[in-house]
TrEMBL record:
It comes from the Eukaryota. One of its GO terms (molecular function) is single-stranded DNA binding. This is RADX protein. InterPro entries: NA-bd_OB-fold, RADX. Pfam families: RADX.
Length: 306
């Protein structure tokens, strides 16, 4: 009875010192960010964003410092949270914005909820799914799955989710975060097919905060990638240059991690599973490739163009 809504919070937060409890569902989850610097002595300089929603709309939650190693892995997409003793701040203007699966959902972008170890010490409780009541009006997680046959019609930077059977996975490679910096992004290329086209999805998969999954991508696994972005090279032949890359909110799942995930109810996921049941496993295994150097986008045919 004491629970407030995100909409109510946005209207009344300036006139309050303490805030009533919130009951929300996690819809999106960012990768874990490390912001430590040598000159700053901080024990756990970590931060992660979550987009949470109730019946009134969607808002950002920021998990800070030592709460990250304690709670980050438990707060999955689809998890229902009861939040108490949190802080409210004006939104950080340069944060990345995931594309919601439900385009009708209202977004509260002026403020964000902060979960801290102290000042005040936030209390986080996970509500088991079997205890979630329909009258709470919490939205379901919705996705934007596309098939390979639909990809060529999508514009550059379009956000989507994909599922496919992995046929190729390249070795892990590194690229500098900044031109002269010492920090690197780790990524690998993968191909996945879904039976709707002769062409595979070409996926540039950066290591998100799921190292256990990133290392287990291999041929013959069912791969789900959420919040991917379309990258289309408009200068050359577009069909040869279209691929998908991970965003800050991407989540990756392989065989063994699918059980209980919200996307298993999606119609395109179900139709993909039906397609895989008709495939000959031995035939698909022969096509599987792992490792090696994968130059993509491919350089031009002659050196002067290059």
């Amino acid at each position: 009875s004491r629970v407030t809504s995100l909409g109510q919070l946005e209207m009344t937060w300036r006139s309050r010192v303490q805030f009533p409890p919130l009951l929300v569902r996690v819809l999106h989850k960012s990768r874990l960010r490390y912001y430590g610097k040598p000159e700053k002595k901080m024990d756990m300089p970590y931060q992660a964003y979550f987009e949470v929603a109730d019946s009134s709309g969607m808002m950002s939650v920021v998990l800070w410092n030592s709460l990250c190693p304690e709670w980050y892995n438990s707060m999955k997409v689809g998890t229902v949270l009861l939040l108490e003793q949190y802080a409210i701040k004006n939104s950080y203007p340069f944060k990345t914005q995931p594309t919601p699966g439900d385009s009708q959902m209202k977004r509260f972008t002026t403020i964000e909820i902060n979960l801290n170890v102290r000042d005040p010490p936030t209390k986080i409780s996970i509500v088991p799914e079997e205890m979630v009541k329909p009258e709470w009006g919490l939205p379901e997680v919705k996705y934007r799955f596309i098939t390979r046959s639909e990809l060529d019609k999508l514009p550059n930077n379009h956000s989507c989710d994909v599922i496919g059977l992995v046929t190729f996975v390249g070795r892990a490679e590194r690229t500098r975060k900044r031109e002269h910096g010492e920090d690197f992004w780790l990524y690998r290329w993968a191909h996945a097919i879904d039976g709707t086209s002769d062409q595979p999805f070409i996926l540039e998969l950066f290591a998100t905060s799921q190292p256990d999954v990133f290392e287990r991508i291999h041929p013959m696994t069912y791969l789900v990638c959420t919040q991917m972005r379309v990258v289309r090279d408009l200068t050359e032949n577009p069909s040869n240059r279209t691929y998908l890359t991970t965003s800050n909110e991407s989540q990756i799942f392989v065989t063994g991690w699918h059980k209980g995930q919200p996307y298993i109810k999606d119609t395109k996921v179900k139709s993909f599973i039906q397609w895989t049941k008709k495939q000959n496993e031995a035939d698909q295994m022969k096509k599987g490739v792992i490792g090696g150097y994968y130059p993509f986008p491919r350089p031009p045919n002659n050196f002067s163009k290059y």
